[in-house]
């Protein structure tokens, strides 16, 4: 039993869906669970729609229309018969959004977000499932919400592994013995059957959850890049493909911000010793990257860039030291404002952290911290993390940069820098 995950970019248009069909056909000899994200940039669009609705702006229905048009074009390109049931089913999915929009928003934003944004995955899988049937790849469409049980933390649902595993083994496993199964990434449901989502880009994590519960042989994530590269091509011109990566290295890379895989994906696979393949959906014969339990993988220096960082330095007002008491108070405030620390450094008299400059909530945090501490901040910084660094790689990234803060351990070097003109 294998799990294949297809992200938004892989199914952004009709050609993408056809290509997915080709990949599945090539692997049809295996038992296969196919996990699919929303098509293209649908999640962003539905996110906008939710906000628009929540703020009762006028363009809400235009945004819905855009989503319908976009998917309409894809299905018309895939199915010649305009009476094919897929047309009706997709339009019924959008009716679920219309029902919500008919009333003024009475529920919290995060809750509404999950009910609306999840439709992206329900629509994409409806299309993919019908298309596979259409090309003689019979399959069963299943609703991931019947399996992935979460708490009611909307937009960041925490998985209840016990319930999820029991349901998957009882009901999903037998289905897979007979047929291909198509399901959604990213979504789950609460014990009261409200839809939840697992956090942006969470479909990778869904694939890992299913794989772990099914004791799958492997997971393959099909991407628009050849595999895990040692840097994001957006920032680096000469990137290298990492053919083999240990679970630990993969966890570290995603922790420091490599966006190729969702950070929560690796751990459940590592626990069950299930290898993860990251492959190109364009060059499907290429081997891509293998992430597994290995000690032999060559340490290839990898670079992770985060721009738009703000350095916050916190000093006690009364010349005392930064001790445990202050630290726990400081962390509590970060947590309260939902701000994730990317790098931190503690000295006797100050505690410094770098965080993403997300605007409003950082300002609120600064304001809050100032009630108890002396606070300084600098923005417009870049954070560069090098895994398996050496002097040469450090020198390479420091061209025209001034170091503001630097942290090194045996494997990882973090440099917070300012660009020099
Ligand atoms: N569709 C969701 C998102 O764009 C989940 C995913 O793609 O993994 O965040
Ligand atoms: Mg995606």
From TrEMBL:
Regions crossing the membrane: none
Keywords: Amino-acid biosynthesis, ATP-binding, Kinase, Nucleotide-binding, Transferase
Source lineage: Bacteria, Pseudomonadati, Bacteroidota, Sphingobacteriia, Sphingobacteriales
Position of the signal peptide: none
Gene Ontology cellular-component annotations: cytosol
Top enzyme class: transferase
Keyword NAD: no
Highest taxon, organism lineage: Bacteria
Family the entry assigns: Belongs to the aspartokinase family.
Annotated protein name in UniProt: Aspartokinase
Species for this entry: Parapedobacter koreensis
GO MF terms, alphabetically ordered: aspartate kinase activity; ATP binding
Residue ranges annotated for the Aspartate/glutamate/uridylate kinase domain, each copy included: 2-280
EC nos: 2.7.2.4
Reaction(s) catalysed (UniProt annotation): L-aspartate + ATP = 4-phospho-L-aspartate + ADP
Listed GO biological process terms: homoserine biosynthetic process; lysine biosynthetic process via diaminopimelate; threonine biosynthetic process
Alphabetized PANTHER family for the sequence: ASPARTATE KINASE, ASPARTOKINASE
Involved pathway(s): Amino-acid biosynthesis; L-methionine biosynthesis via de novo pathway; L-homoserine from L-aspartate: step 1/3; Amino-acid biosynthesis; L-threonine biosynthesis; L-threonine from L-aspartate: step 1/5; Amino-acid biosynthesis; L-lysine biosynthesis via DAP pathway; (S)-tetrahydrodipicolinate from L-aspartate: step 1/4
Matches recorded under Pfam families: AA_kinase
């Amino acid at each position: 039993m294998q799990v294949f995950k297809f992200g938004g970019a892989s199914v952004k248009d009709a050609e993408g869906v056809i290509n997915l069909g080709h990949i599945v056909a090539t692997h049809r000899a295996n038992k296969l669970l196919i996990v699919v994200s929303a098509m293209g940039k649908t999640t962003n669009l539905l996110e906008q729609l939710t906000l628009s609705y929540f703020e009762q702006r006028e363009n809400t229905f235009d945004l819905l229309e855009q989503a319908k048009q976009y998917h309409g074009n894809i299905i018309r390109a895939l199915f010649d018969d305009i009476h094919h049931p897929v047309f009706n089913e997709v339009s019924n999915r959008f009716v679920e959004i219309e029902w919500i929009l008919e009333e003024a928003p009475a529920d919290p934003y995060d809750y509404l977000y999950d009910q609306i944004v999840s439709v992206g995955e329900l629509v994409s899988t409806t299309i993919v499932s019908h298309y596979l049937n259409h090309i003689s790849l019979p399959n069963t469409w299943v609703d991931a919400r019947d399996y992935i049980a979460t708490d009611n933390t909307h937009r960041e649902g925490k998985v209840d592994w016990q319930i999820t595993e029991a349901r998957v083994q009882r009901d999903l496993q037998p289905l897979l013995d007979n047929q291909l199964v198509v399901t959604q990434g990213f979504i789950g449901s609460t014990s009261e059957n409200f839809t939840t989502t697992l956090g942006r880009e969470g479909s990778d994590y869904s694939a890992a959850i299913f794989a772990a519960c099914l004791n799958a042989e492997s997971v393959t994530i099909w991407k628009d890049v050849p595999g895990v590269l040692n840097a994001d091509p957006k920032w680096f011109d000469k990137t290298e493909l990492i053919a083999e990566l240990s679970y630990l290295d993969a966890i570290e890379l995603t922790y420091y911000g490599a966006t190729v895989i969702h950070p929560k994906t690796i751990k459940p696979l590592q626990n069950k010793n299930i290898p993860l393949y990251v492959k190109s959906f364009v060059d499907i014969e290429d081997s891509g990257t293998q992430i597994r339990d290995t000690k032999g993988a060559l340490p290839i220096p990898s670079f992770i860039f985060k721009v738009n960082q703000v350095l916050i330095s916190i000093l006690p007002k009364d010349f005392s030291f930064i001790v445990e008491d202050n630290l726990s108070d400081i962390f509590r405030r970060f947590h309260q404002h939902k701000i994730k620390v990317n790098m931190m450094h503690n000295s006797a008299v100050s505690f410094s952290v770098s965080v993403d400059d997300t605007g409003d909530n950082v300002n609120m945090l600064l304001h809050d911290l100032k009630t108890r501490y002396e606070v300084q901040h600098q923005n417009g910084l870049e954070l560069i993390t090098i895994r398996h660094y050496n002097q040469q790689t450090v020198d390479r990234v420091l061209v025209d940069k001034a170091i503001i803060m630097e942290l090194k351990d045996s494997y990882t070097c973090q440099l917070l820098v300012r660009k020099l003109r």
